[in-house]
Amino acid sequence: MVGEAKLIENRVGKPVSTDDLFRFIKSVISDEQQEETGPFYVLDLGATRSLVETWFHNLPMVQPFYAVKSNPNPAFLKEMAALGTGFDCASLHEIETILSLGVSPDRIVFANTCKPESHIKYAAKVGVNLATFDSNCELEKIKKWHPKCELLIRIKVPEASGSAFMFGSKFGALPEEIVPLLKAAQEAKLQVVGVSFHIGTGAINFHSIQGAIEAAKTTFDFAAQLGLPKMHILDIGGGFTSGPKFTDAASAVKVALQKYFPGELADSSLKIIAEPGYFFANSPFTLATSIIGKRERGDVKEYWINDGVWGSMNILKDDHDEVICTPLTIKNPTCEGLKTWNSTVFGPTCDPNDTVLKGFKLPELDVNDWLVFHNMGAYTSSRGNDFNGFKTSAIPTYILALMPPRKQEK
C-alpha cells in the first residue's frame, strides 16, 4: 500500500537529512484525520538513488539484479527499474510484478533452484530465459517445459562466518555433484552458461568471497573439459551490506575476480551479475509506530506499539543487528535533556514473544507518542503477516519524493 506522495526540497539523488525525515514524519502524522494513526513506512527515493550510485562506483563491472523478495514495494521496484537494475525473481508472481513495470524479461534472472512446473511454463511464455538449478530433477523439469532457457549452475561455497542467513543447507550443488550435473545438462542439450553462488547474508568474510569465486572458476574449467560451450556469466549472489562493509566486500570481489578471471576481465567476455537485496532495500525505508499502551514495573518502563515481530519486525526473530530507534514525543519533540529509563517495547499481539526491544534506553513516553525505527526496508514488510488481525499488509508507505532545488528569482 502506497500513501500519498509528498514533496520535499532536496538535492536529487541524495538521502534526506534526519531533520527533514522527522519533519516529513510529523507532517504525515498531522495530516492523518483518523483518531488513531496506524504504523507507516517512509521511503526515501534519494537514498535509493544514492545506493545505486554507490554500487556502480565500487563495482562497475557487476550488474545488480535486485532480489525482489527483500522488499517488493511497488514504488521502490519502480525506482529500481528506472535506475537500470536487473531483478532476481523467485516465483511467477515476482516475475509478473517486474514485467508489469515495463521491465524487459532479459533483465530478470529466475533465481530459485526449485521451481514449480507452472512457474517454469510461465517463464517460457513471457521470455524469462535465464534461471538457476542445482539438481537433476530441476534439469528434467526445465528440459520438459523450457528447453531454450539458459542455465546457471548454483554451487555450494564456503559461507561467511557469522552470517544471519546461511543457504548451503538448502541450495547449491556439492563439489562432487557438479560434474555429473554438467554432464546431465549436456546430455539433455540444455545450455549451462554460467555459475551462481551465495556466501550468506549479513556478514562478510572476505576469505569466503575469494573461496566462492575460486570454486566458480573451477566449475568453469570443468565445463570446458567436458566440451560444453564456453560459460560467460558469473552470478556472485548477495550478502552485501551497506557502509564500510560493502566497500570492503567490493574490494574483495575485485581482487578475487582479477585473480581467477583475469583474461575474461581483460577482454570483457564475462558478464558478472549479483543478487543484492538488503544492500538496496534496507536504509531507504523508515518505520513509524505509535505507542498504544504503557506500564511501569519498578524502574522499567514498558510500552506497547502498533507493530511488532509478527509484522514488520519479523526479521528480529533471526537477525540481531542493532535496532536503531528514535522517540518522537508530543510534549518534547526533540526529547533533548530528558531522563532516560530502561525500557521494554512490546508489539501489539497476544504472543508473549512479541518483544521488539528490551533494556533499551528511552525517555518517559505516553500513549500516542511515537517510536521511529530506521533501516527497516529489508525483509520487514515482505516477511510480516496478519497475526491476531494486525495487518502488516495494510501498512502504508509514504513516498518522500525529491524535487530539484528551485531556481531563485533574481
Please give a handful of descriptors for the protein shown.
single chain, 410 residues, alpha/beta, Lyase, Ornithine Decarboxylase, Chain A, domain 1, TIM Barrel, 2 domains, nine-stranded mixed β-sheet, eight-stranded parallel β-sheet, elongated, disordered C terminus
Walkthrough of the structure:
The protein is an alpha/beta fold. The chain folds into two domains: 6-45 and 282-403, Lyase, Ornithine Decarboxylase, Chain A, domain 1 (Beta Barrel); 72-276, Alanine racemase (TIM Barrel), CATH 3.20.20.10. The protein has eleven helices and 17 strands. The protein has helices at 18-31, 45-58, 74-82, 92-99, 117-126, 136-145, 175-187, 206-225, 244-260, 262-267, 278-281; strands spanning 6-9, 40-44, 62-67, 86-89, 108-110, 130-133, 150-154, 191-196, 233-235, 271-274, 285-297, 300-305, 325-328, 340-346, 355-363, 370-373, 397-403. The strands form two sheets. Strands 1, 2, 11, 12, 13, 14, 15, 16 and 17 form a nine-stranded mixed beta sheet that branches. Strands 5-4-3-10-9-8-7-6 form an eight-stranded parallel beta sheet. α4 links the parallel β4 (86-89) and β5 (108-110). α8 packs parallel to α9 (244-260). The longest helix has 20 residues, at 206-225. Homodimer. Only the dimer is catalytically active, as the active sites are constructed of residues from both monomers. Residues 50-281 form the Orn/DAP/Arg decarboxylase 2 N-terminal domain. The modification N6-(pyridoxal phosphate)lysine is found at residue 69. One of its GO terms (cellular component) is cytoplasm.
